[in-house]
Amino acid sequence: MTAALSISTIDLHYGAAQALKGVSIDCQPGKITAVLGRNGVGKSSTLRAITGINHISSGAITFGSDVLKKTPPYKRARMGIGYVPQGREIFPLLTVKENLETGYAGLGRSERNIPEYIFELFPVLKSMLGRRGGDLSGGQQQQLAIGRALVTRPKVLVLDEPTEGIQPSIIKDIGRALQFLRDEKGITILLVEQFLDFCREIADDIYVMDRGEIMHKGPASDLDLPDVKKHLMV
Question: Which residues neighbour 177 within 8 Å (Cβ) at sequence distance 6 or greater?
Fold first, then answer.
């Protein structure tokens, strides 16, 4: 089976510092792939490479049949890569509705609408359409950030630590939403996480990073292996 998104032996540098060393990840179609590791091991750098925010030094990133070389982020979004950044990065002075509508930028006129299933996944967004994004709680802002990415009609959804600083009830809602997107919408999902129980519950495949390299790949059940746990302990 051809991967929906494939990262092949990529290196990434920030000046003289090397952040990624030969990283390879295959995201299979219609599955949830989780990348885990301690802080500062290169997880977010991997997502920034995929979304085009940072250019790789070597290696290749393939999306479907397209090789992404120096394709800018906005073109990757139009191709079908949706991105939910760490820290949400919603627009605090715009309303919830206006935040969602920023996802229209890469869409044709006929697609410029908010899919109803977004409100079914996150009902709070519908009840707060007129509220400013900055007035929402952290968990509600995370739901808004995911909703905004879904407005772009992604084929692959990339999320950077979606459970960070979120209350447990909303973590469960986000987990259910991601499973729905995988199972009912066929969206391929790649997420960076540190919350092991969350990944154990929803992920199909895991990759474990340490010091800019992939140290382990396998099914989510591998999270219980001692050799995997040693790379995740603080």
Answer: 121, 122, 146
The tokens describing 183, both together, are 């199972």
| Count of structural domains, the chain | 1
Instruction: Give the tens place of pLDDT for each residue, 19-32.
Output: 999 999 999 999 99
Q: What tokens were used for 221?
A: 């059940």
Q: What's the pTM?
A: 0.93
Confidence grade of residue 69 (pLDDT, cut at 50, 70, 90)? confident
In this prediction, residue 234 has a pLDDT band, given cuts at 50, 70 and 90, of low
CATH number for 143:
3.40.50.300
> How confident is the model over 85-111, as pLDDT tens digits?
998 899 999 999 999 999 999 888 999
Range 176-180 average pLDDT: 98
Asked whether residue 158 is domain-assigned, the answer is: yes
Containing domain of residue 109, as a range?
A: 5-229
* Domain presence at residue 32: yes
> CA angle, corner 202, sides to 152 and 90, nearest 5?
35
CA distances from 204 to 1, 47, 198 (A): 15, 18, 12
